[in-house]
Specification:
Length: about 210
């Protein structure tokens, strides 16, 4: 079971990751096709299935399609079932007509299946708290670079004093700086990246602006 879980939870190559902007944040996700491919490869095409329990427009907010999907898999001879609830906002024309309700239902069902698969470890790392991932990596990683440790400690100190606007601005800086790559961890960060983040922390804390020299 442990080996299968490790294979299911293996991070996807960055080339497969996609990003979507929600509010002021950029969220990273994995397309449903890649999630299905991972299940097929690790568990086996004949060893898992999904069932649509329900899919409907939300009773409270009909601008959303809500789906309930159950993923059932045979792992090490045991049957495992995981449920996922997903949603998709319904797109409307300026006149108030629904563009494609079937497509929105499909998106909600895909979201629900991904959340069910996430409980088996598939792309779970994208939903986990960054600090929890750092702890897990620290327990299994070799002795970290003292400079990396020091830089992370300084960044953590800066972030503890930031309000939400400054924290969101720091997230936006990283997305722009890195080209929407996942946030660095102690296992993946370079000192150059961390120095860039520290520089932005100082700028945000001091309330300064970048000025190009002439």
């Amino acid at each position: 079971m442990k080996d299968i879980y490790q294979e299911l939870s293996e991070p996807f190559p960055q080339e497969m990751e996609r990003s979507v902007r929600k509010g002021s944040a950029n969220l990273t996700y994995i397309p449903i096709s890649e999630v299905i491919a991972r299940l097929n490869k690790v568990i086996g095409i004949n060893n898992w299935s999904s069932e649509i329990i329900s899919c409907h427009r939300d009773a409270i907010d009909p601008h959303w399609a809500i789906a309930h999907v159950r993923l059932t898999a045979i792992i090490d001879g045991q049957t495992v079932s995981k449920d996922g609830i997903g949603g998709q906002q319904i797109k409307m024309t300026k006149a108030g007509a629904i563009l494609d309700l079937g497509d929105e239902f499909k998106g909600a069902m895909s979201d629900a299946l991904k959340k069910a698969a996430q409980q088996l470890g598939v792309a779970l790392y994208l939903a986990r708290d960054v600090e929890a991932l750092e702890v897990e990596e620290a327990l299994s990683a070799p002795q970290p670079d003292p400079k990396i440790e020091e830089a992370f400690a300084q960044i953590k100190e800066f972030k503890s004093k930031m309000d939400k606007d400054a924290s969101d601005a720091l997230d936006k800086f990283w997305n722009d700086y890195s080209g929407n790559k996942p946030k660095p961890t102690k296992a993946t960060a370079t000192i150059e990246d961390l120095n860039a983040i520290l520089g932005e922390c100082v700028r945000l804390t001091m309330g300064g602006e970048f000025v190009e020299s002439k």
